[in-house]
Amino acid sequence: MSPLQAAMREQRVSIALRLINHPDIDINYLGEGPFRRTPLQCAVDKGNMELVNIVLDHGVDVNGPPATVAGATALQLAAIHGFLLIAQKLINKNVDVNAAEGAAEHGRIDMLQFLLGSGASIEGDEGERQYQRAVELAKKNGHNAAAKLLMSAKS
Q1: pTM for the complete prediction?
Q2: In whole angstroms, what is the distance from residue 106 CA to residue 145 CA?
Q3: Residues of the chain with pLDDT under 50
Q4: Are 40 and 2 in contact (CB under 8 A)?
Q5: What per-residue confidence (pLDDT) applies to 44?
Q6: Of 125, 124, 85, 121, nearest to 101 (Cα)?
Q7: Which of 8, 31, 134, 140 is deepest in the core (most CB within 10 A)?
Q8: Where would one find the signal peptide in this protein (predicted)?
């Protein structure tokens, strides 16, 4: 874990501000091993808009990849937690809006409506796969209203 990731996880704004411009700090660093997060993903996971703004203002990649184990993109984390203002901020920064699986898996109807209204794709090869996976996850976790919302968006 980089010092910037640690500052984000611990929500240390003053430390993050000192580190963000350091030449040895990669603001898009994902880290090693499972369960890792980029600095942006750490900030989003904590729901800390101040930290999110700090990394966004310094040119972070809003579409940074998720970890292979228990990973999630920044938008997926915002959707899972229901952080609507953070999700809107990410969309304003041209994040890939296709993050419905996490929202569906956690029964976040509010976020599903927001993502669908923001252009999340349920058509085409990639959109269809994501749509099917989102419906499956919603049903598997007993979030029938989320599954119905997704199915109604398709018809």
Answers
A1: 0.90
A2: 11
A3: none
A4: no
A5: 96
A6: 121
A7: 8
A8: none
Report d(CA 136, CA 144) in Å as an integer. 10
Q: What is the 3-state secondary structure (H, E, C) of 112-132?
A: HHHHHHCCCCCCHHHHHHHHH
Give residue 124's pLDDT.
Answer: 67
Residues 6 or more apart whose Cβ sits within 8 Å of residue 94: 62
Output the pLDDT for position 111. Answer: 94
Contacts of 36 (CB under 8 A, 6+ apart): 1, 30, 67, 71
Contacts of 144 (CB under 8 A, 6+ apart): 138
Gap between the Cα atoms of 34 and 23, Å rounded: 26
